[in-house]
Design brief:
Strand content: 35-45%
Number of strands: 25
Helix content: 10-25%
Largest sheet: 14 strands, antiparallel
Number of helices: 9
Length: about 475
Protein backbone atom coordinates (compact mmCIF):
# COMPACT_ATOMS: atom_id res chain seq x y z
CA UNK A 1 0.00 0.00 0.00
CA UNK A 2 2.72 2.50 0.93
CA UNK A 3 4.47 1.94 -2.42
CA UNK A 4 1.26 2.89 -4.18
CA UNK A 5 0.91 6.01 -2.01
CA UNK A 6 4.49 6.95 -2.91
CA UNK A 7 3.87 6.45 -6.62
CA UNK A 8 0.70 8.53 -6.46
CA UNK A 9 2.60 11.37 -4.85
CA UNK A 10 5.51 11.38 -7.29
CA UNK A 11 3.10 11.30 -10.24
CA UNK A 12 2.18 14.89 -9.38
CA UNK A 13 5.70 16.25 -9.73
CA UNK A 14 6.17 18.56 -12.72
CA UNK A 15 2.39 18.97 -12.97
CA UNK A 16 1.52 21.72 -10.51
CA UNK A 17 3.23 24.44 -12.51
CA UNK A 18 0.01 24.88 -14.47
CA UNK A 19 -1.25 26.82 -11.47
CA UNK A 20 0.67 29.83 -12.71
CA UNK A 21 0.26 32.36 -15.48
CA UNK A 22 2.44 32.19 -18.62
CA UNK A 23 4.20 35.43 -17.70
CA UNK A 24 7.17 33.79 -15.98
CA UNK A 25 8.21 36.97 -14.15
CA UNK A 26 4.80 37.07 -12.51
CA UNK A 27 5.02 33.46 -11.43
CA UNK A 28 7.28 33.58 -8.41
CA UNK A 29 5.71 32.59 -5.12
CA UNK A 30 4.00 29.66 -3.46
CA UNK A 31 0.72 27.82 -3.73
CA UNK A 32 -0.69 25.37 -1.21
CA UNK A 33 -2.75 22.24 -1.83
CA UNK A 34 -4.62 19.80 0.39
CA UNK A 35 -3.79 16.17 -0.44
CA UNK A 36 -6.58 13.56 -0.34
CA UNK A 37 -6.73 9.79 -0.87
CA UNK A 38 -10.21 8.52 -1.73
CA UNK A 39 -11.64 11.81 -0.37
CA UNK A 40 -9.88 11.39 3.00
CA UNK A 41 -7.31 14.08 3.75
CA UNK A 42 -3.82 12.76 4.35
CA UNK A 43 -1.52 15.74 3.89
CA UNK A 44 -0.62 18.90 2.03
CA UNK A 45 1.71 20.10 -0.72
CA UNK A 46 3.69 23.30 -1.14
CA UNK A 47 4.57 24.43 -4.65
CA UNK A 48 7.06 27.18 -5.46
CA UNK A 49 8.44 28.75 -8.63
CA UNK A 50 11.47 31.01 -8.85
CA UNK A 51 12.99 32.92 -11.76
CA UNK A 52 16.44 34.50 -11.39
CA UNK A 53 18.06 37.39 -13.26
CA UNK A 54 19.73 34.96 -15.69
CA UNK A 55 16.37 33.64 -16.83
CA UNK A 56 16.82 30.28 -15.08
CA UNK A 57 13.63 28.69 -13.74
CA UNK A 58 13.37 26.49 -10.64
CA UNK A 59 10.19 24.62 -9.82
CA UNK A 60 9.80 22.70 -6.55
CA UNK A 61 7.12 20.64 -4.86
CA UNK A 62 7.16 19.56 -1.20
CA UNK A 63 4.53 16.96 -0.21
CA UNK A 64 3.87 16.13 3.45
CA UNK A 65 1.63 13.17 4.29
CA UNK A 66 0.58 11.24 7.37
CA UNK A 67 0.22 7.56 6.56
CA UNK A 68 -1.99 5.59 8.95
CA UNK A 69 -1.57 1.83 8.68
CA UNK A 70 -3.41 -0.20 11.25
CA UNK A 71 -3.43 2.72 13.68
CA UNK A 72 0.31 3.35 13.31
CA UNK A 73 0.62 6.92 11.99
CA UNK A 74 3.91 7.93 10.40
CA UNK A 75 5.08 10.91 8.37
CA UNK A 76 6.12 10.73 4.74
CA UNK A 77 7.75 13.65 2.93
CA UNK A 78 8.52 13.75 -0.78
CA UNK A 79 10.40 16.72 -2.23
CA UNK A 80 11.58 17.44 -5.73
CA UNK A 81 13.02 20.40 -7.58
CA UNK A 82 13.68 20.86 -11.28
CA UNK A 83 15.89 23.57 -12.79
CA UNK A 84 15.83 24.85 -16.37
CA UNK A 85 18.29 26.97 -18.31
CA UNK A 86 17.24 30.23 -20.04
CA UNK A 87 16.80 28.25 -23.29
CA UNK A 88 14.28 25.99 -21.41
CA UNK A 89 16.54 22.91 -21.39
CA UNK A 90 16.70 20.77 -18.26
CA UNK A 91 19.71 21.48 -15.99
CA UNK A 92 19.16 19.61 -12.74
CA UNK A 93 16.73 17.38 -10.84
CA UNK A 94 16.96 16.71 -7.12
CA UNK A 95 14.49 14.58 -5.16
CA UNK A 96 14.23 13.06 -1.71
CA UNK A 97 11.86 10.70 0.08
CA UNK A 98 11.83 10.62 3.88
CA UNK A 99 9.53 8.01 5.42
CA UNK A 100 9.64 5.84 8.50
CA UNK A 101 12.96 7.40 9.48
CA UNK A 102 14.55 6.30 6.19
CA UNK A 103 15.82 8.71 3.50
CA UNK A 104 16.30 8.07 -0.22
CA UNK A 105 17.75 10.73 -2.51
CA UNK A 106 18.39 11.29 -6.19
CA UNK A 107 20.27 14.01 -8.07
CA UNK A 108 20.79 14.41 -11.80
CA UNK A 109 22.91 17.10 -13.42
CA UNK A 110 22.90 17.66 -17.18
CA UNK A 111 26.32 18.40 -18.61
CA UNK A 112 26.24 18.68 -22.38
CA UNK A 113 25.38 15.28 -23.94
CA UNK A 114 25.39 13.51 -20.56
CA UNK A 115 23.27 13.45 -17.42
CA UNK A 116 25.19 12.38 -14.32
CA UNK A 117 22.96 10.71 -11.74
CA UNK A 118 23.64 9.91 -8.08
CA UNK A 119 21.21 7.81 -6.02
CA UNK A 120 21.46 7.02 -2.32
CA UNK A 121 19.23 4.17 -1.13
CA UNK A 122 19.80 2.29 2.11
CA UNK A 123 22.98 4.28 2.61
CA UNK A 124 24.39 2.85 -0.62
CA UNK A 125 25.54 5.41 -3.20
CA UNK A 126 25.10 4.58 -6.88
CA UNK A 127 26.41 6.69 -9.75
CA UNK A 128 25.54 6.39 -13.42
CA UNK A 129 25.68 8.39 -16.63
CA UNK A 130 22.57 8.57 -18.79
CA UNK A 131 21.48 10.35 -21.94
CA UNK A 132 19.60 13.53 -20.92
CA UNK A 133 15.82 13.23 -21.25
CA UNK A 134 13.95 15.18 -23.92
CA UNK A 135 12.05 17.12 -21.23
CA UNK A 136 12.16 20.93 -21.38
CA UNK A 137 10.35 23.72 -19.56
CA UNK A 138 7.77 23.67 -22.35
CA UNK A 139 6.83 20.12 -21.32
CA UNK A 140 6.36 21.13 -17.70
CA UNK A 141 4.20 24.03 -18.92
CA UNK A 142 2.20 21.86 -21.33
CA UNK A 143 -1.21 22.11 -19.65
CA UNK A 144 -0.73 25.79 -19.04
CA UNK A 145 0.18 26.35 -22.70
CA UNK A 146 -2.90 24.39 -23.74
CA UNK A 147 -5.26 26.51 -21.61
CA UNK A 148 -3.57 29.78 -22.58
CA UNK A 149 -4.45 29.09 -26.22
CA UNK A 150 -8.18 29.26 -25.27
CA UNK A 151 -8.76 25.77 -26.65
CA UNK A 152 -11.98 24.09 -27.73
CA UNK A 153 -13.16 20.74 -26.39
CA UNK A 154 -11.00 18.04 -27.96
CA UNK A 155 -7.86 20.16 -28.36
CA UNK A 156 -4.75 18.48 -26.99
CA UNK A 157 -1.01 18.80 -26.48
CA UNK A 158 1.75 16.20 -25.96
CA UNK A 159 4.64 16.33 -23.51
CA UNK A 160 7.46 14.26 -22.03
CA UNK A 161 8.91 14.21 -18.51
CA UNK A 162 11.60 12.30 -16.66
CA UNK A 163 10.41 10.48 -13.53
CA UNK A 164 13.41 10.74 -11.23
CA UNK A 165 12.65 8.09 -8.62
CA UNK A 166 11.57 5.51 -11.21
CA UNK A 167 14.28 6.66 -13.65
CA UNK A 168 12.07 6.45 -16.71
CA UNK A 169 11.00 8.92 -19.38
CA UNK A 170 7.23 9.18 -19.54
CA UNK A 171 5.23 10.54 -22.44
CA UNK A 172 1.80 12.00 -21.99
CA UNK A 173 -1.08 13.87 -23.59
CA UNK A 174 -3.27 16.64 -22.20
CA UNK A 175 -6.74 16.99 -23.72
CA UNK A 176 -9.57 19.42 -23.01
CA UNK A 177 -12.70 17.38 -22.27
CA UNK A 178 -15.09 20.11 -21.04
CA UNK A 179 -15.36 23.87 -20.52
CA UNK A 180 -17.43 25.33 -17.70
CA UNK A 181 -18.01 28.70 -16.08
CA UNK A 182 -17.81 29.14 -12.33
CA UNK A 183 -17.95 32.07 -9.96
CA UNK A 184 -14.61 32.33 -8.16
CA UNK A 185 -14.06 35.09 -5.61
CA UNK A 186 -17.21 36.75 -6.94
CA UNK A 187 -16.02 36.77 -10.56
CA UNK A 188 -17.41 34.59 -13.39
CA UNK A 189 -14.44 32.50 -14.55
CA UNK A 190 -14.02 29.99 -17.35
CA UNK A 191 -12.74 26.64 -16.08
CA UNK A 192 -11.22 23.97 -18.32
CA UNK A 193 -11.41 20.27 -17.51
CA UNK A 194 -8.19 18.71 -18.81
CA UNK A 195 -7.67 14.95 -19.00
CA UNK A 196 -4.06 13.81 -18.85
CA UNK A 197 -2.80 10.40 -19.94
CA UNK A 198 0.69 9.39 -18.79
CA UNK A 199 2.02 6.29 -20.50
CA UNK A 200 4.21 4.17 -18.22
CA UNK A 201 5.84 0.99 -19.63
CA UNK A 202 3.02 -1.27 -18.38
CA UNK A 203 0.20 1.12 -17.47
CA UNK A 204 -1.47 4.33 -18.58
CA UNK A 205 -2.42 6.62 -15.70
CA UNK A 206 -5.26 9.05 -16.23
CA UNK A 207 -5.84 12.24 -14.28
CA UNK A 208 -8.30 15.12 -14.42
CA UNK A 209 -7.40 18.75 -13.78
CA UNK A 210 -9.60 21.78 -13.25
CA UNK A 211 -7.77 24.84 -14.56
CA UNK A 212 -9.04 28.40 -14.81
CA UNK A 213 -8.65 30.52 -17.94
CA UNK A 214 -5.87 32.38 -16.08
CA UNK A 215 -3.93 29.16 -15.60
CA UNK A 216 -4.78 28.52 -11.95
CA UNK A 217 -4.89 24.84 -11.06
CA UNK A 218 -7.94 24.35 -8.85
CA UNK A 219 -7.79 20.59 -8.53
CA UNK A 220 -5.83 17.64 -9.86
CA UNK A 221 -7.05 14.04 -9.44
CA UNK A 222 -4.87 11.05 -10.34
CA UNK A 223 -6.50 7.69 -11.17
CA UNK A 224 -9.74 8.87 -9.58
CA UNK A 225 -8.39 8.38 -6.05
CA UNK A 226 -5.55 10.82 -5.32
CA UNK A 227 -6.49 14.50 -5.27
CA UNK A 228 -4.66 17.80 -4.78
CA UNK A 229 -6.95 20.77 -4.14
CA UNK A 230 -5.92 24.44 -4.06
CA UNK A 231 -6.42 25.75 -0.51
CA UNK A 232 -5.22 28.59 1.73
CA UNK A 233 -2.04 27.62 3.59
CA UNK A 234 -3.68 27.25 7.01
CA UNK A 235 -6.49 25.08 5.60
CA UNK A 236 -4.11 22.96 3.52
CA UNK A 237 -2.01 22.13 6.60
CA UNK A 238 -5.01 21.40 8.81
CA UNK A 239 -5.70 17.74 9.48
CA UNK A 240 -8.27 16.72 12.08
CA UNK A 241 -7.74 12.97 11.63
CA UNK A 242 -5.83 10.45 9.55
CA UNK A 243 -7.53 7.82 7.46
CA UNK A 244 -6.40 4.23 8.02
CA UNK A 245 -5.35 3.16 4.53
CA UNK A 246 -5.35 -0.52 5.51
CA UNK A 247 -9.05 -0.68 6.35
CA UNK A 248 -10.39 2.07 4.08
CA UNK A 249 -9.02 0.43 0.93
CA UNK A 250 -9.86 -3.19 1.76
CA UNK A 251 -12.44 -5.27 -0.08
CA UNK A 252 -14.58 -6.29 2.90
CA UNK A 253 -16.96 -9.26 2.76
CA UNK A 254 -20.02 -10.07 4.87
CA UNK A 255 -19.06 -13.48 6.20
CA UNK A 256 -15.63 -14.84 7.14
CA UNK A 257 -14.03 -17.54 5.01
CA UNK A 258 -13.56 -20.85 6.78
CA UNK A 259 -10.11 -22.47 6.89
CA UNK A 260 -8.50 -19.69 4.83
CA UNK A 261 -4.93 -20.95 5.13
CA UNK A 262 -5.59 -24.68 4.70
CA UNK A 263 -8.51 -24.95 2.28
CA UNK A 264 -7.94 -26.64 -1.07
CA UNK A 265 -10.03 -24.36 -3.32
CA UNK A 266 -11.47 -20.85 -3.49
CA UNK A 267 -13.87 -19.35 -6.02
CA UNK A 268 -14.44 -15.58 -6.13
CA UNK A 269 -15.85 -12.82 -8.31
CA UNK A 270 -13.91 -9.54 -8.39
CA UNK A 271 -15.51 -6.31 -9.57
CA UNK A 272 -13.82 -2.98 -10.18
CA UNK A 273 -11.56 -1.26 -12.73
CA UNK A 274 -9.50 -4.39 -13.40
CA UNK A 275 -7.73 -4.74 -16.76
CA UNK A 276 -5.93 -7.52 -18.57
CA UNK A 277 -2.66 -6.34 -17.01
CA UNK A 278 -4.06 -7.22 -13.57
CA UNK A 279 -4.91 -10.80 -14.54
CA UNK A 280 -2.38 -13.48 -13.60
CA UNK A 281 -2.95 -17.16 -14.18
CA UNK A 282 -0.63 -19.98 -13.13
CA UNK A 283 -0.84 -23.36 -11.42
CA UNK A 284 -2.29 -21.84 -8.25
CA UNK A 285 -4.63 -19.10 -9.48
CA UNK A 286 -6.71 -18.48 -12.59
CA UNK A 287 -8.30 -15.14 -13.48
CA UNK A 288 -10.76 -14.67 -16.35
CA UNK A 289 -12.33 -11.34 -17.29
CA UNK A 290 -15.93 -11.67 -18.52
CA UNK A 291 -18.53 -8.92 -18.86
CA UNK A 292 -16.60 -6.54 -16.65
CA UNK A 293 -16.13 -9.07 -13.85
CA UNK A 294 -13.12 -11.21 -13.00
CA UNK A 295 -13.70 -14.84 -12.06
CA UNK A 296 -10.95 -15.96 -9.71
CA UNK A 297 -10.26 -19.57 -8.83
CA UNK A 298 -7.37 -20.92 -6.80
CA UNK A 299 -6.22 -24.35 -5.76
CA UNK A 300 -3.75 -25.49 -3.15
CA UNK A 301 -0.38 -26.70 -4.45
CA UNK A 302 1.52 -29.54 -2.78
CA UNK A 303 5.29 -29.19 -2.48
CA UNK A 304 5.88 -32.71 -3.77
CA UNK A 305 4.34 -31.76 -7.15
CA UNK A 306 6.80 -28.94 -7.83
CA UNK A 307 9.44 -28.97 -10.54
CA UNK A 308 12.50 -28.48 -8.39
CA UNK A 309 15.82 -27.13 -9.63
CA UNK A 310 19.32 -27.40 -8.23
CA UNK A 311 21.44 -24.35 -7.39
CA UNK A 312 22.97 -22.54 -9.17
CA UNK A 313 20.08 -21.97 -11.57
CA UNK A 314 21.29 -21.50 -15.14
CA UNK A 315 18.01 -20.86 -16.96
CA UNK A 316 18.61 -17.82 -19.19
CA UNK A 317 14.95 -16.77 -19.14
CA UNK A 318 14.95 -16.16 -15.39
CA UNK A 319 18.45 -14.70 -14.97
CA UNK A 320 17.17 -11.08 -15.12
CA UNK A 321 15.50 -11.75 -11.77
CA UNK A 322 18.90 -12.44 -10.20
CA UNK A 323 20.11 -8.88 -10.76
CA UNK A 324 20.36 -6.28 -8.02
CA UNK A 325 18.26 -3.11 -8.19
CA UNK A 326 18.26 0.19 -6.24
CA UNK A 327 15.80 -1.15 -3.65
CA UNK A 328 16.84 -4.82 -3.81
CA UNK A 329 20.60 -4.65 -3.15
CA UNK A 330 21.24 -8.36 -3.58
CA UNK A 331 24.87 -7.77 -4.60
CA UNK A 332 25.77 -6.01 -1.34
CA UNK A 333 28.30 -8.02 0.72
CA UNK A 334 26.08 -7.93 3.81
CA UNK A 335 23.10 -9.38 1.92
CA UNK A 336 25.29 -12.00 0.24
CA UNK A 337 26.84 -13.07 3.55
CA UNK A 338 23.48 -13.35 5.28
CA UNK A 339 22.02 -15.42 2.43
CA UNK A 340 24.97 -17.84 2.58
CA UNK A 341 24.60 -18.12 6.35
CA UNK A 342 20.90 -19.01 6.10
CA UNK A 343 21.03 -21.33 3.08
CA UNK A 344 24.22 -23.14 4.06
CA UNK A 345 25.03 -26.10 1.82
CA UNK A 346 21.44 -26.62 0.62
CA UNK A 347 21.36 -27.01 -3.18
CA UNK A 348 17.66 -27.71 -3.67
CA UNK A 349 16.25 -24.35 -4.79
CA UNK A 350 12.86 -24.85 -3.14
CA UNK A 351 14.32 -25.93 0.18
CA UNK A 352 16.84 -23.06 0.07
CA UNK A 353 14.09 -20.52 -0.63
CA UNK A 354 12.01 -22.05 2.16
CA UNK A 355 14.86 -21.53 4.61
CA UNK A 356 15.07 -17.86 3.61
CA UNK A 357 11.32 -17.42 3.89
CA UNK A 358 11.19 -18.94 7.36
CA UNK A 359 14.24 -16.94 8.54
CA UNK A 360 12.73 -13.61 7.43
CA UNK A 361 9.43 -14.48 9.11
CA UNK A 362 11.08 -15.51 12.36
CA UNK A 363 13.55 -12.63 12.64
CA UNK A 364 11.66 -9.52 11.48
CA UNK A 365 9.55 -7.84 14.14
CA UNK A 366 6.03 -7.28 12.80
CA UNK A 367 5.43 -3.53 12.66
CA UNK A 368 3.48 -1.35 10.21
CA UNK A 369 5.85 1.09 8.55
CA UNK A 370 5.46 4.06 6.20
CA UNK A 371 8.99 3.61 4.88
CA UNK A 372 9.65 3.18 1.17
CA UNK A 373 11.62 0.08 1.99
CA UNK A 374 14.83 -1.37 0.64
CA UNK A 375 16.66 -4.53 1.62
CA UNK A 376 19.66 -2.92 3.31
CA UNK A 377 17.59 -0.72 5.61
CA UNK A 378 15.40 -3.69 6.54
CA UNK A 379 18.50 -5.72 7.37
CA UNK A 380 19.53 -2.88 9.71
CA UNK A 381 16.17 -2.35 11.44
CA UNK A 382 14.94 -5.96 11.32
CA UNK A 383 11.32 -4.86 11.48
CA UNK A 384 8.45 -3.97 9.20
CA UNK A 385 5.26 -5.08 7.52
CA UNK A 386 4.68 -7.17 4.40
CA UNK A 387 6.70 -4.78 2.22
CA UNK A 388 9.81 -5.09 4.38
CA UNK A 389 9.43 -8.85 4.64
CA UNK A 390 9.15 -9.30 0.88
CA UNK A 391 11.92 -6.89 -0.18
CA UNK A 392 14.45 -8.49 2.19
CA UNK A 393 13.37 -11.99 1.18
CA UNK A 394 13.71 -11.17 -2.53
CA UNK A 395 17.19 -9.70 -1.98
CA UNK A 396 18.35 -12.74 0.02
CA UNK A 397 16.93 -15.11 -2.58
CA UNK A 398 18.73 -13.37 -5.44
CA UNK A 399 21.94 -13.29 -3.43
CA UNK A 400 21.58 -17.06 -2.96
CA UNK A 401 21.19 -17.55 -6.71
CA UNK A 402 17.39 -17.98 -6.67
CA UNK A 403 15.51 -15.77 -9.17
CA UNK A 404 12.91 -13.74 -7.25
CA UNK A 405 10.56 -10.79 -7.68
CA UNK A 406 8.07 -8.87 -5.60
CA UNK A 407 4.34 -9.59 -5.87
CA UNK A 408 1.41 -7.42 -4.81
CA UNK A 409 -2.32 -7.92 -4.63
CA UNK A 410 -4.96 -8.91 -2.09
CA UNK A 411 -5.01 -11.48 0.68
CA UNK A 412 -7.79 -12.60 2.98
CA UNK A 413 -7.61 -11.79 6.67
CA UNK A 414 -10.04 -10.73 9.38
CA UNK A 415 -8.39 -8.10 11.62
CA UNK A 416 -10.64 -6.60 14.27
CA UNK A 417 -13.39 -8.96 13.08
CA UNK A 418 -13.51 -7.23 9.69
CA UNK A 419 -13.19 -10.10 7.21
CA UNK A 420 -12.07 -9.12 3.76
CA UNK A 421 -9.31 -8.96 1.21
CA UNK A 422 -6.58 -6.48 2.10
CA UNK A 423 -3.77 -5.08 -0.05
CA UNK A 424 -0.64 -7.08 0.61
CA UNK A 425 2.84 -7.81 -0.74
CA UNK A 426 4.68 -11.11 -0.97
CA UNK A 427 7.17 -12.71 -3.40
CA UNK A 428 7.58 -15.07 -6.31
CA UNK A 429 10.63 -17.32 -6.64
CA UNK A 430 11.86 -19.64 -9.38
CA UNK A 431 12.70 -23.09 -8.01
CA UNK A 432 12.31 -25.01 -11.28
CA UNK A 433 9.00 -23.23 -11.83
CA UNK A 434 7.67 -19.93 -10.50
CA UNK A 435 5.89 -20.25 -7.15
CA UNK A 436 4.70 -17.68 -4.60
CA UNK A 437 6.08 -17.50 -1.06
CA UNK A 438 4.89 -15.21 1.73
CA UNK A 439 7.53 -14.49 4.40
CA UNK A 440 5.11 -12.30 6.36
CA UNK A 441 2.87 -15.32 7.00
CA UNK A 442 5.67 -17.94 6.71
CA UNK A 443 3.97 -19.66 3.78
CA UNK A 444 6.47 -21.39 1.50
CA UNK A 445 3.53 -22.05 -0.82
CA UNK A 446 0.95 -19.30 -0.42
CA UNK A 447 -2.64 -20.21 0.38
CA UNK A 448 -5.57 -19.89 -2.01
CA UNK A 449 -6.68 -16.52 -0.61
CA UNK A 450 -3.69 -14.70 -2.17
CA UNK A 451 -4.88 -12.77 -5.25
CA UNK A 452 -1.90 -11.72 -7.37
CA UNK A 453 -2.57 -8.43 -9.23
CA UNK A 454 0.95 -7.11 -9.94
CA UNK A 455 4.41 -8.59 -10.22
CA UNK A 456 7.79 -6.90 -10.35
CA UNK A 457 9.53 -3.86 -8.89
CA UNK A 458 8.27 -0.36 -8.10
CA UNK A 459 7.74 0.53 -11.76
CA UNK A 460 5.62 -2.56 -12.47
CA UNK A 461 3.45 -1.88 -9.43
CA UNK A 462 2.24 1.38 -10.99
CA UNK A 463 -0.62 -0.69 -12.37
CA UNK A 464 -2.09 -1.00 -8.86
CA UNK A 465 -2.80 2.73 -8.63
CA UNK A 466 -6.13 2.77 -10.52
CA UNK A 467 -7.63 -0.04 -8.41
CA UNK A 468 -6.74 0.98 -4.84
CA UNK A 469 -9.91 1.00 -2.74
CA UNK A 470 -12.08 0.19 -5.76
CA UNK A 471 -12.19 -3.62 -5.75
CA UNK A 472 -15.23 -5.56 -4.53
CA UNK A 473 -15.02 -9.29 -3.79
CA UNK A 474 -17.84 -11.84 -3.64
CA UNK A 475 -17.27 -15.40 -2.41
CA UNK A 476 -19.05 -17.90 -4.67
CA UNK A 477 -18.55 -21.03 -2.64
CA UNK A 478 -17.59 -22.13 0.83
CA UNK A 479 -15.60 -25.22 1.61
CA UNK A 480 -17.01 -27.03 4.61
CA UNK A 481 -14.66 -28.44 7.26
CA UNK A 482 -14.22 -32.19 6.90
CA UNK A 483 -16.11 -34.39 9.39
CA UNK A 484 -14.12 -35.48 12.40
Amino acid sequence: MKKVIFMLAVSLFSRVLVAQDLDLRALTGKNWYGVYLNDQKMGYAEHELTLNDKGEVRESLDVHMKVNQGGNVQDMQITESREYAPDATLKRITSKVVSGGITHSFEAVVEGPEMRCVSVVGGKRTEEVRTPPAETLRDVLSRMRLVAARPAVGDKIDYVRFESMLKVEIRGTNKVTAIDEQVLDGTPTKVYLVETEERFPNETLKSLSKITENGVLLEDTVAGIYRMRLEPEDLAKKMSSTNDVIFSNAALIEQPISMPTTRDHLNLVLEGPLRESHLFSDRRQTMVLENGRVHFTAQRIAAETLKQATLPIQDEEVKPWLKASPFVQSDDPRIVAKAKEIVGDEKNAYLAASRLCSWVHANLRKQYSAALSNALDVLDTMEGDCTEHSVLFVALARAAGIPAREVAGLVYTAPEKKPGFYFHQWASVYVGEWIDMDPMFNQTLVDVTHIKLAEGDLLQQVQLIPIIGRIHVRVLEEEKPSAQ
